[in-house]
Write a structure and sequence with these properties.
The structure is a single chain. By secondary structure, the protein is an alpha+beta fold. The chain has a 6-stranded antiparallel beta barrel. A hairpin with a 4-residue loop joins strand 1 and strand 2. Helix 1 packs antiparallel against helix 2. The longest helix is centred in the N-terminal third of the chain and has 79 residues.
């Protein structure tokens, strides 16, 4: 019955209305009201019932549509509110990370007062089988020069500036095969050269070469910049010894280093535009 009314409700309502009007007119003009009234009541009763059902059905549909529109508007408003809350949460997380970075940078500035730092953001990262570079949004206009070291807010070495423009510069990272920087094993003071190696780049590693024959590197040793020659600041953290290897001659040894910095996670770095040599 409900399905029938759903499909043919308006037709039934129209027919019921016509019959009800007709019977009402007949009743009005008829003098034999008693018998005719009974007939009219008997005949019209089903149609009146049907008309009432259709009217109630139509009213229910109207109420449903009204309630549906209200629910849809409420749902849209809730979605917008949730989107704003999620954006506020993301912004709070970004602010928290930035505050943590600034606190670490403040600690570094207190510890390394001889370093003059320029903040820069990474705008592009390029990595291939033979090169690893970062493009930064600071260049000549910010006092950046070729040969400047690039570090994190904790003093970990990212790389060295290899090219500059007015408002940009290129950092060759510690993994790049062109990188070569004086290094020192912090525990023993043994001197060597940290450099990028073609065979190690795919593993995200670099090499510590040219160690003295009596050097004794161990897995886990911290390796920092030596500062010899005054080209680069000393005590910048390069990485840790992951493996100790023997050269092809069976005598010389070298170490495989795990870099201190995760290049893939970087978004902001600091360029050492000037430094004082600390004796």
């Amino acid at each position: 019955m409900k399905r029938f009314l759903t499909r043919h409700g308006m037709v039934v309502l129209s027919v019921a209305t016509v019959v009800a009007v007709t019977l009402s007119l007949v009743s009005f003009f008829s003098s034999n009201t008693g018998v005719l009234t009974n007939i009219i009541q008997t005949v019209s009763s089903p149609f009146r019932t049907a008309a009432t059902s259709v009217a109630e059905w139509a009213g229910g549909i109207r109420d449903y549509l009204t309630e549906f529109d209200a629910l849809r508007e409420e749902n849209a408003a809730l979605k917008e509110q949730i989107a704003r809350m999620e954006e506020d949460l993301r912004q709070a997380e970004r602010d928290s990370e930035e505050n943590a970075t600034l606190r670490r940078l403040l600690d570094l500035r207190e510890q390394r007062r001889e370093l003059h730092l320029e903040s820069a953001r990474i705008i592009q990262a390029d990595t291939s089988n033979w090169a690893s570079t970062l493009t930064l949004n600071a260049g000549d206009a910010f006092g950046v020069s070729v040969g400047d070291c690039v570090i994190t807010e904790t003093g970990d070495l990212v790389g060295v500036i290899s090219e500059t423009g007015g408002s940009w510069s290129t950092c060759t990272t510690v993994l790049d095969t062109e990188t070569s920087i004086g290094a020192q094993i912090f525990r023993t003071g043994d001197i060597g050269v940290a450099r990028g190696d073609f065979s190690l780049m795919g593993r995200g590693r670099l090499q510590l070469d040219y160690l003295d024959a009596d050097a004794s590197p161990q897995v886990g040793d911290l390796v920092v910049s030596s500062g010899l020659g005054g080209y680069y600041p000393s005590q910048l953290v390069i990485g840790t010894v992951e493996e100790v290897m023997t050269g092809d001659d069976g005598l010389a040894q070298y170490a495989v280093l795990s870099p201190a910095v995760d290049l893939s996670a970087l978004s902001q770095v600091f360029i050492i535009t000037d430094f004082s040599i600390v004796e």
